[in-house]
Each structure stands twice: as C-alpha cells, then as structure tokens.
Amino acid sequence: MILSNYNKLNITFCGMMGSGKSIIGSKFAKIIKFNFIDTDALIEEQTGKSIDQIFDNFGEAYFRELEERYISKILFKKNYVISLGGGVMNNVNLRKILKQNSFNIYLCVSNSELVKRLENSNKRPLIKNKNIQNILQELLKKREKYYNKADIKIENSKSVNHTIKELKKILDLNE
Questions:
Q1: Which end of the chain is more exposed for a tag (fewer CB within 10 A), N or C?
Q2: Domain boundaries in the chain?
Q3: Dist. CA 14–CA 82, nearest whole Å
Q4: 14 with 84: CB under 8 angstroms?
Q5: What residue spans of 80-171 are helical by DSSP H?
Q6: Are the C-beta atoms of 81 and 14 separated by less than 8 Å?
Q7: What architecture is the 2-165 domain classified under in CATH?
C-alpha cells in the first residue's frame, strides 16, 4: 500500500474548515481498510466539551494546546486516516511529526466554495458572527504555505465521489 512506499504510518488530510477533510477521510479510510479519526471529534470526546465551548470558555490558545496533546499521540499509531483541524498545520511540532509519520493530503477548495459551504455553520468558533469571506482569506493567508507542503494537493470542489476517484487515481489504487 502507499504508506510502505513512503515509509509512513498514517494518512492525514489537511486544509481549511469546510474543505471536506472529515467526509473524504472517512470514506477513504473505508476504501483502504484503515481506522478513521477526526481530530476535532477526538478533542470533543476526550474533553466532554464542544469545540465552541472550549473556545468560549478557555480560548483558542488552550484549544491549540489540546490539539497538540491529542494529535501528537495519534500520529504515532499505525494505519489510520486522520482528518486534521484546519489550524493544525500552524503548529511547528505537529508539522514535524506529520512530515515524519504521515502521508499528508491537502484538500484544496476555493474561498468562494468554502463560503458557500460554511455560511450556515454555527459550530465553527473562528467564523461565528463574523464576515466569513474575510476570515477565511485571512486564515488561508496564514496557513496555505504549510498546506502546500503536503505530499499531494487535490482539488475538492466537486462531488465527494469525484474527489475519491481522483485520489485513487493519484495514489494508484485499484478497486
């Protein structure tokens, strides 16, 4: 399988909120028969609080500490597909572990498509009650240089099935 070709333990999906990391990651995990973890869901499960509650009660810095604590552990597991939170790539320690242990896939989506996908979301603290388009542009400006260092970059503006088909083609996976 692809991981042995690259001497990696896992596959990770990075990209902006709304880029489809969780849906693509979970479907792709089933195809390659790996376990799936969504890091935001993991943090919620471990803390018993929603991401929104963590941001509201403790702030973003505390959330980023939790991210590093939990994600650094799961990156050493084997045969997982991991959907990373949008801001994970800003963390230098996590980037090092990711580079070492995972085959990283950047799901790229245009800003206008992200706005469409996120305009009715009230579960994302960074865009809640704000100008979504401006916030997304700001965040992408800070994160894109890290996203672009992924092992592969794939456009995810069409259907989930289209993206999965493209992934399989790029990774040379047969049905």
A1: C
A2: 2-165
A3: 9
A4: yes
A5: 92-101, 111-118, 132-147, 160-170
A6: no
A7: 3-Layer(aba) Sandwich (3.40)
Count CA atoms within 13 Å of residue 175 on its CB side.
1
Whether pTM exceeds 0.85: yes
Which residue type occupies 109?
V
Residue type, 134: N
DSSP string, 50-69: -HHHHHHHH-HHHHHHHHHH
- pLDDT tens column, 43-73: 999 999 999 899 899 999 999 999 999 999 9
Predicted confidence (pLDDT) per residue in 132-175, tens digit: 788 888 888 999 999 999 999 999 988 889 999 999 888 877 65
